[in-house]
Structures are given as C-alpha cells and as structure tokens.
Amino acid sequence: MYQFLTTEIAYLKGVGPQRAKSLQDELNIYTYRDLLEYYPFRYIDKSSFTPVRSCFYAEAAVQMKGRINDVRVLGEGRKKRLVAKFYDDTGSIDLVWFKGIKWVEPLIKSDEEFTLFGKVTRFGKKYNIAHPDVEKYHITQTKSGNLQPVYNSGEKLGAKGLHSKGLEKIIRSLTNLCVGKIDSTLTPEIEHQYQLMDRETALRQIHFPDHQDLLKKARIRLKFEELFFLQMALIKQKMVSRSKSTGYVFETVGTHFNTFYKNHLPFELTGAQKRVVKEVRKDLSSGFHMNRLLQGDVGSGKTLVSLLVMLIALDNGFQATILAPTEILATQHFHSMNEFMEPMGVKVDLLTGSAKTAKRKQIDADLRDGTIQILIGTHAILEDKVVFQNLGIAIIDEQHKFGVAQRGKLWKKNHNPPHILVMTATPIPRTLAMTFYGDLDISVIDELPPGRKPIKTIHYFDSKRLVLFQFIEDEIKKGRQVYIVYPLIEESEAFEYKDLMDGYESISRRFPRPDYQISIVHGQMKPADKEYEMNLFAEGKTQILVATTVIEVGVNVPNASVMVIESAEKFGLSTLHQLRGRVGRGAEQSYCILMTGYKLSENGKKRMETMVRTNDGFDIAEVDLQMRGPGDIMGTQQSGILDLKIADLAKDNQILNMARIAATELLDEDENIQHKKNYPVRKELIRQMKRKPNWSRIS
Ligand code: ADP
Ligand code: MG
Questions:
Q1: Sequence-distant (≥ 6) Cβ neighbours of residue 663 within 8 angstroms
Q2: Cα(64)–Cα(44) distance, rounded to whole angstroms?
Q3: Mean pLDDT of the chain
Q4: Is residue 553 over pLDDT 50?
Q5: Which pLDDT score, from 0 to 100, does residue 639 have?
Q6: How far is the CA of 304 from the centre of ligand 1 (A)?
Q7: Is the pLDDT assigned to residue 693 strictly greater than 80?
Q8: Quick one: pLDDT band at residue 668, thresholds 50, 70, 90?
Q9: Alpha helices, DSSP H only, in 553-652?
C-alpha cells in the first residue's frame, strides 16, 4: 500500500509529465503522498458571506460575495496601482492592488459574481481592501459541501491550469483513488486514547470537509501526527546521544564550592537558583553527559549559578569554561568572577579575540598544564588551538547568539565531551523550547532576587523630548546613571553611526561638561576603547552611556536606573526586553523609556504596548511568537525543523503537549520501537528519517 502513495505524480489522471514538472519545481510535489499532504491554506465557507455593508466593522479578514466594477489603473511607475469597486445589494467598498496588476486586471474585468476574501483597512474616513483574494463564484462547486478548499498556487502553476481550482480538481481525483489505501501511521491505542480521526478520513476531510466539525477533527489528527513524529525523532535522538556519551562523574562537592557558598556568597540564593543548582548537580553525578538549557529572565541571577556549577567541576579536578557572546560581557564576567575567586586562590583567566600574542601563549601554556582553572572568554575559546588539560564543564551564556555547531565544537574539547550548560535570557515559549531544544533538558529560574522593584516602562513620542531630558537631569541629580541606546542598522553601518553621533551631539549640548560626563560605545570602536568607555560608566565616572545595541547582552551596572531606547519601533520585542533588563538591577526604582515617531505600524504599536504592559519575559516571548512566528524567532539556521505542513508552533500548544506525552510513553515502553503493535509508527519514522538525513542537529 505504501507503493500506492509513492506513485509518481505524473501518473495521476489529469496531471501528465508537463504539469508534474511544474508541481515538482514549484511545490516540491513528487508523489501521490506529497500531493495529498498539500493542504488547503483556507476554505471558502459558502454558507457565510459578510454583507458589504458590515465589512467596515470587521476586525479580521472577511469573505464576501458580489460583483466588481469601475476597474481602473491609476498612477505611473512605482505609484501605479489597480483600483476597483466591489459591491453587493448592501453597499460597496474600494479594492486596490499594487502588485500583480497584469494578472488581476483581466480576471476582475468581468460581469460575474465573485467571492472575495480580504482585510479592510481604514485611512481616515476612507476604507479599502488591499490585495484581496478574488475568485469567480461557481455555484456548481457547492456540491462538495459548504467549504471549498483554497490552495496556494502561483503564476507559473496558473499558466499550466494549476491555480487553486486546478489543484482542487486533481486532488479530488486523487482522494477518490485513495479509498481503502491509506495506512495509519499511529497505533490504534494512541488513536483511541487521544480520540483522533483515522488518517484516511482526515486526509479526505482536510481537502473536502463535509462540515466545520469534521474539518476541525481532521486538522487535529494531522497536526498531532506531525508533531508526534517530530517529538519521536527528538526524544530518540536524545536517548541515543545519552547512551553513547558517558559523562564525567562529579561526585564530590568539595572545598571550592563549600567555601564559596559558606563564606563568599554575596547574598542568599533565591529558591529558583537553589533548585537549578540541585538539578545540575544531579546531572553531573549521574554518569551521563549533561546537556542542559537554563532559561531565566534578565536579572534572575544566572551568572552566580554558573559560577557555583563551575566550582563543582573544580572540586572534582576538572577545569571549567564560560563563553559569552561579546567581549564586553566576557570582560565583565571575568572581573566579577575574579573578584570572588582570587581570594579563594582559584586561577581565572580571560581569552578574547583581541588578546595579544604573548597573552595567548601564556594562556595556552596555563590551560594545558592546568594552571588556569576557569577560563572566561568569547568564541575565541572554540578555536581548535585552545586546548585544555581536563575540561569538565562548558557554560554558554546567552545561547541565542551561538549556533548549534558551536555547541558541537565544545564537545571535542576533552576525551569525553564536557558537560554543557546553555544559558539564555531570551525566554523561549515552551512549545519552541520543546521542539528546538528537545534534545536538551530544561531548567528554569522563574524568580527574581528579592527587593527588585518592577521597572516602569513609558512610551513617548518624539515630541516629548524636552520632558525626557528633564527627567534624565532629575535622575542624574539623584545620583543615578542613564543608558541611551540607538538602533544598529546592519545594512548600513555608516547610517547607524550617523544616528548615534547626531544623538550624541544633541545630548552633549543638553548635558555639557564639566557638570556631566558622557561615555559612548558602538560597533566600530576598537575593543580596548569600548572597554575603556564601558568601564568609565561602570565605575560611575560618566553618568550617561550613549550606545548601540552592543550593550544588549548581559552588561551589569546596578546604579544605572534609566534606559532610554531611541527609535524603539525599530527593535524586536526580545531585544527591547533585553535592553530594559540592563536597568532595575539595584534597589532604586528604574525606568525604561521607549521613544518613537508618531507613525507606528500595527506591529510596532503592539510591541510598545506589550513592553509597557508587562515585565515578564515569558509573557513577552509568547506575544513575540504570535506576532512573528517560530521561524523568525529561532533564526533561519534552524528552520529545517520548521518544515511543518500543518502544525503551528505558535498556536498548537495543546496538541504539541499531547503528542509529546504520547511519544514519551511509547518510547518508555518500547525504546527501540520493536513491539508488533508499534509497527506503523516504526515504519513512518523510518520513512521520515530517510527523507531528512540531517536530522541530528548537534554536529
Ligand atoms: P542574568 O540572569 O541576567 O545573567 P545576573 O546574573 O547578571 O543576571 O544577575 C543580576 C543581578 O542580580 C546581579 O547584580 C547579581 O549580583 C544579582 N543577584 C543574583 N542573584 C541574587 C540573589 N540571590 N539575591 C540578590 N541579588 C542577586
Ligand atoms: Mg547574564
């Protein structure tokens, strides 16, 4: 029966070699199965059309039925656009297209009924719909129930008669052929337990739903299945890497840890910090190789946890290392950790890209003979020539700046791979964490140190600049310090520099020497100069730090209480949250001020509102996920995992949880998937693994 689904698409009635080629080139559809799994992206619900009169009040996209007239092309060159009126018995609304005019114009110049799908936007008193989907309304097609599938197509496919309607036709003939030929990929047990629709029905209903309820059930089934196999692969991989990699056993918690804990700890650990240290200790003594992700909001005290964990390695005769994404941050870790370690006689050193040859030589020697016990640095540590005598644990701070391949490099730094703790202050929604870091164990610090006052966040339009300056002056008078951050525009470094310099000048005019001292830090400065300026600020010698986002990550100056973010609309939510996390680190009330122009996009507005509304990084991460989708958040380098056909990691939380549980239970009971009853799962898993040979994300 599998052979049936692997039949080449050219053999399907109504396809043939020419269309098959287009389907392959445009949609990656090679086989019957591929076509069956090419799901509609929406449905025209013939039973519910919004009257045109009511569309002006609709928040979401609407579907209407009516006719089109007044089709005209206006403007020239880049301002060229196609406009028309859409009307029914109740009213009319303007339509506009800026692209694809050549394509749309002949279609809509016809006196037939159309169905239209689109979102109404408002400009002052005027309303219109830009780039709506319009299709001729065919009464004959209502025989398939009220929901008509709509498929993504394109001009090239359209030219071969494979626009949405054409696709619908060949998919319909395929589903008719399929009757009785679709195997389940899940066990009857799982289908029963989670009350899933059977696969064959689901595949038919997803294309040609009889009604909304069945469509919903079909969707759940197919999403479950997709997420189930994703989780199977991840859990399986975790099991394999665990069984293969013996970890160094850190049995003793000895003098270093205890001395520090009893005599040098600057404050009582929070409950969450204690819990995480315990979780890590358990891993380290287990005999398995630790691969753990530590999530904790900005300012939750991850640094201290990492230091404690490194001391356990030292107590067991191993070296430890911590990697930071920027030189500034590495340097700062070095100073703060060294301050604690020096009195205890622990040798800590710093390695960054700008280390001089002599310094490097010394570090090399000291690392090889074990003199250096803790090495702090940037990705320079990853270079092959950096060789440890006996590295027991590697900590990666602010993981999102490091790729997976870099994690892999650390594995090779000792005979057995050192234990790995990855720390991130960009909270990742649970659905994403389970998927992207399915191969890691996860710890969470969900508690801030006591006595922190929530940061007050204010959104100002640029016209409030005088108010802002007065506020800064008042805070400085109270002895506080202020960050002012400008966006870093990657495509044009010169531009970034200009914004920053203009800002710097106007701030210097408003806050002149000698009453005020200002530091400046940006990406084009030499590391040494950056460090010098940063230090002036950290030591309280300057009151204002003007910077680009180089300070985004990790920098800690507890006396700074104001974070001003210029052109805040140009930053993403996670960056805004990171930046805000630079203040609120001391006992004083802190402020984050978001400066923007008047013109804000919908998303821009939403970002500002979210920042003003909440300080909770996990909350913000959820909003971010809803707004941008998982691909953007995790970066394209990992987007292979996002080749999801139907499930949506931003929305299908519940289904993902169920699928994860089902996968875990199955593997708990039948680790190698050998029981007869699990045969369908085994077969599908093997098929999928063959298709994705690069499943392993840890190189
Ligand atoms: P992050 O998790 O963002 O890396 P840090 O480790 O830089 O946070 O800690 C932020 C601040 O909180 C630092 O000034 C640190 O000294 C302080 N801190 C950490 N743990 C505690 C605690 N248990 N009690 C009080 N202050 C703490
Ligand atoms: Mg940190």
A1: 228, 231, 232, 235
A2: 10
A3: 87
A4: yes
A5: 47
A6: 7
A7: no
A8: very high
A9: 573-580, 602-613, 617-634
Nearest CA to ligand 1 atom 15: 301
What stretches of 430-464 show up as alpha helix (H) in DSSP? 430-436
Closest approach atom of ligand 1 to CA 296: 2
How far is Cα 563 from Cα 557, in angstroms, rounded to an integer?
12
> What is the whole-number distance in angstroms between the Cα of residue 425 and the centre of ligand 1?
12
As a whole number of angstroms, the distance between CA 697 and CA 699 comes to: 6
Ligand with minimal distance to 266 CA: 1
Ligand 1 atom at minimal distance to the Cα of residue 300 = 2
Number of Cβ within a 10 Å radius of residue 180: 8
pTM for the full predicted model: 0.69
Closest C-alpha to ligand 1, atom 25: 449
Task: Identify whether the C-beta of residue 100 lies closer than 8 Å to the C-beta of residue 130.
Answer: no
Query: Which residues form the pocket of ligand 1, taking CB atoms under 6 Å from any ligand atom?
Result: 267, 269-270, 273, 296, 298-304, 425, 449, 554, 556, 558, 585
Instruction: Give the closest ligand to the alpha carbon of residue 399.
Output: 2
What domains lie within the chain, and their CATH numbers? 1-41+152-182 (1.10.150), 45-150 (2.40.50.140), 255-445 (3.40.50.300), 456-613 (3.40.50.300)
The structure tokens listed for 394 are 């590697």
- Listed in sequence order, the residues at least 6 apart from 226 whose beta carbon sits closer than 8 Å to its beta carbon are 644, 645, 646, 647
Which listed ligand is nearest to 322 at the C-alpha?
Answer: 2
Q: How many whole angstroms from 281 Cα to the centroid of ligand 2?
A: 20
Distance 611 CA to ligand 1 centre (A): 22
User: Which residue has its alpha carbon closest to ligand 1 atom 11?
Assistant: 299
Q: Using the Cα atoms of residue 264, residue 269, residue 273 and residue 276 in order, give the sign of their dihedral.
A: positive
Q: Under DSSP, is residue 201 helix (H, G, I), strand (E, B) or coil? A: helix
Q: Strand order of the sheet with strand 81-88? A: 120-123, 126-130, 91-97, 81-88, 62-74, 114-118, 133-136
Q: Which tens digits make up the pLDDT trace of 443-482?
A: 999 888 888 889 999 999 999 999 999 999 999 999 999 9
pLDDT score at 635: 57
Q: Where are the alpha helices (DSSP H) in 539-600?
A: 573-580
Query: Are 650 and 625 contacting, i.e. CB atoms less than 8 angstroms apart?
Result: yes
The CA distance from 283 to 441, in Å, is: 10
Of ligand 1's atoms, which has the minimum distance to the CA of residue 270?
23
Distance 570 CA to ligand 2 centre (A): 24
Q: How many CB atoms lie within 10 A of CB 317?
A: 14
Tell me the torsion sign for CA atoms 461, 464, 467, 472.
positive
Nearest bound ligand to the CA of residue 559 = 1
CA nearest to 90, candidates 58, 51, 50:
51
Q: What is the DSSP string of 479-543?
A: T-EEEEE----TT-HHHHHHHHHHHHHHHHHHS-TTT--EEEE-TTS-HHHHHHHHHHHHTTS-S
User: Both tokens of residue 314?
Assistant: 């030292």
What's the N-to-C CA distance of the chain in angstroms?
A: 36
Phi-psi region of 70 (alpha: psi -120 to 50; beta: other; left: phi over 0): left
Bridge partners of 293, per DSSP, are 422, 442
User: Does the structure show a pLDDT above 50 at 699?
Assistant: no
Rounded to the nearest 5°, which phi and psi values hold at 546?
-95, 130
DSSP annotation of 413:
T
User: Hey, which bits of 119-187 come out as E strands?
Assistant: 120-123, 126-130, 133-136, 147-150
Hey, which of 300, 322, 329, 615 would you mutate to test ligand 1's pocket, going by the most ligand atoms within 8 Å of its Cβ?
300
